[in-house]
Amino acid sequence: MPQEKINGPENTSRLVSLDALRGLIVILMAVDHANHFIAHKHSTGEYWGGGFPVYPDAIAFLTRFITHPVAPGFFFLMGVGMFLFARSRRERGWSEWEIMRHFLIRGTFLVGLQFLVVNRAWVLGPGEFPPIYFGVLFALGEGMILGSLFLRLKPSYLIGLAIFLFVGTELLTPNPSQWGLIFDQPLGLLLVYSGGNQVIWVNYPVLPWLELVTFGMYFGSLLVKDSRKAFKRATQLGVGFILAFLAIRYLDSFGNIRPRAGDSWIDVLNVVKYPPAMTFTLLTMGFNLIVLGLFFQAREKIQPIIEKLVVFGRVPMFFYILHLYLYAYLGRWLTPEGTSIPAMYPYWLLGLVILYPLCRRYGDFKRRSAPNSLIRFL
Question: Structure pTM?
Answer without folding.
Answer: 0.94
